[in-house]
Specification:
alpha/beta, about 20% strand, about 230 residues, globular
Length: about 230
């Protein structure tokens, strides 16, 4: 079944070009040059992924991402013309799953889209056996079939990326998972030196939602210079 993709960019030439590439991959594209139209679309359509430009004439991409995360868990990819790391971290902190800096090659963006949809489908529907679709320990429950996570019977609102990170760590309880392995498994992309910042931001966000302490963690422990670990 073709995925529904929201595309928002006020640079019409870029939006039109990306639309062509997405359509060629048999995705259904909902294209907008402003934030207001995109917000209306989010409420009306069942979307599988959003591509949001940060700089828009009315509502900025960060605000749209934030509003998406209030009700939806589908992947969000941010487009930014800025190189500053703070913009990337801001997007990730607000719940974005990935970002790509302009100018970019359309085929690279398509590869990112496919990776996000593949990961979301994998962790949302589950490609494992029935007995491996539920993890429960120390008050934490992750369910692959419903893509839900509860902590002490309270539902945690996790993004697809956060859920994926937590699933990988919980699946490897008692073992250290390196930042490189975590990035490759969750993002499905090649690991670079700045990829560690991406992982760190998501880990921090996860800890905040779980009310877990980095200094005295109950769940996610940092093994400095190695990676992350959840004890058995």
């Amino acid at each position: 079944m073709a995925a529904n993709i929201l595309l928002v960019d006020d640079e019409q030439a870029i939006a039109d070009l990306v639309e062509v590439y997405l359509t060629n991959e048999n995705y259904k594209v909902f294209k907008f040059y402003n934030g207001k139209g995109a917000l209306d679309c989010i409420e009306k359509e069942k979307l599988d992924l959003a591509i949001l430009d940060v700089m828009l004439p009315d509502v900025d991409g960060f605000s749209i991402c934030q509003q998406i995360r209030e009700n939806y868990t589908f992947p969000v990819i941010m487009l930014t013309a800025k190189e500053e790391e703070i913009d990337k971290i801001t997007g990730l902190t607000l719940g974005a799953d990935d970002y790509i800096t302009k100018p970019f090659r359309p085929l690279e963006l398509i590869a990112r889209v496919k990776a996000q949809l593949r990961r979301f489908t994998k962790y949302n529907i589950g490609e494992t056996g029935q007995d491996e679709r539920l993890i429960a320990f120390s008050g934490l429950v992750l369910d692959l079939d419903t893509h839900e996570c509860t902590l002490n019977e309270k539902k945690l609102s996790l993004t697809p990326t956060e859920f994926s990170i937590l699933w990988v760590l919980c699946s490897n309880r008692g073992r250290v998972v390196s930042a490189e392995r975590l990035f490759q498994e969750v993002w499905g992309d090649k690991y670079f030196s700045n990829s560690n910042n991406t992982v760190m931001v998501h880990i921090r966000h996860l800890r905040e939602k779980m009310q877990d302490s980095a200094e005295h963690p109950k769940y996610i422990k940092t093994v400095w210079g190695v990676g992350y670990k959840i004890e058995k």
